[in-house]
């Protein structure tokens, strides 16, 4: 008897809990790995587990990796997720060390003992310790291949050389590598195995560059909303969802989980606990937004005891899924509006949230206020919207007046 993909994913995540994985690790796998797998299976008409479907998913993602649409680190996570599903479907158990190992490193007995003693001193989550073990194992393998059988002749240059090598394959995780190395080298120093100063070597690298994704223009959002048939029940729901997203900046997961009790009609406010940050957020419920939601609730929402606002249009009338439903709703009206979306171009449901932040910035709303409206946990998370205010960026640009130019520089 075949098992449903959704059920297999839930069982695999439960098994990760038994292995001692942290809540953040399990949450990361649920949304960044298993959600794309689930959506891929649904799009290809596969609701039951099929090994061939997972192979096809990985093949598709590998092509996107080759096109530089996402990182190698993300691809490795997807690959581990697939391996875990396959393993659990066959054996109903998982072996985390198997999925987390890219290469087999062989180190001598002395290094193995030092590594074990170091790991025994760590009071961290199991997943974090596994990551530290991987980084230090690679370091010990590196120095042993370069002629060190112990730490007697280890020099700061050896550590620096390893960090340069590690930087080539750990583009997005060098801060994690440095943290693990700092802990390990402090352990060696405390045990009188090394005696030199560590600070000049383990300098924190510059923050990696982040790709700035585009947002929708006012005209594009208007064009999307105009494609919706608000006379139909499904249209009333979709209009309310997209209007709410584009006028409040709420995440898709928070809209999917919006409850009837979250709407304070007397005070015209929305009260939620954000799914991503677990922090409370209070937003004004503007007239047009409230009218769109009320139109759906009063005239289109199915009769149901569900506490959630937005429901499926067909029985069983349960709430919409937290990821796929919102993306599918937007995609339908993008096509109708003639707005082409390509993989990795940023024109996703989340772009409505970026658009809201950008529009507020263009209206001279202070960055701190934008951060509060979007419910960011850290104010730095809002700074990315500065890169999207093209008008003000052009105002910052300098002309060549007063700058001497060499003859022949321009044709």
Q: How does this model look, in words?
A:
- This protein has 411 residues and is mainly α.
- The protein has three domains: 5-99, DNA polymerase, domain 1 (Orthogonal Bundle); 109-190; 218-394, hpI Integrase, Chain A, CATH 1.10.443.10.
- It has 17 helices and three strands.
- It has helices at residues 5-18, 23-43, 51-66, 72-91, 96-99, 109-120, 126-145, 156-169, 174-190, 218-226, 233-248, 252-256, 287-299, 324-336, 350-362, 367-374, 390-396, and strands at residues 263-264, 269-273, 280-284.
- It has a three-stranded antiparallel sheet with strand order 1-2-3, with no helix packed on it.
- A hairpin with a 6-residue loop joins strand 2 (269-273) and strand 3 (280-284).
- Helix 7 crosses helix 9 (174-190).
- It is globular, with a radius of gyration of 26 Å.
- The termini are far apart.
- The mean pLDDT is 82.
What are the secondary-structure elements, in order, as H or E? HHHHHHHHHHHHEEEHHHHH
CATH domain topology of the largest domain: hpI Integrase, Chain A
End-to-end separation: 73 Å
CATH superfamily of the largest domain: Intergrase catalytic core
What portion of residues is helical? 40-55%
Strand order of the largest sheet: 1-2-3
> Which consecutive residue ranges, at least 5 long each, have pLDDT under 50?
none
What would you say the CATH architecture of the largest domain is? Orthogonal Bundle
Overall pLDDT, averaged?
82
In the CATH scheme, the class of the largest domain would be Mainly Alpha
Number of structural domains: 3
Query: Structural class of the helix and strand makeup?
Result: mainly alpha
How many β-strand runs?
3
Query: Main beta sheet: strand number and arrangement?
Result: 3 strands, antiparallel
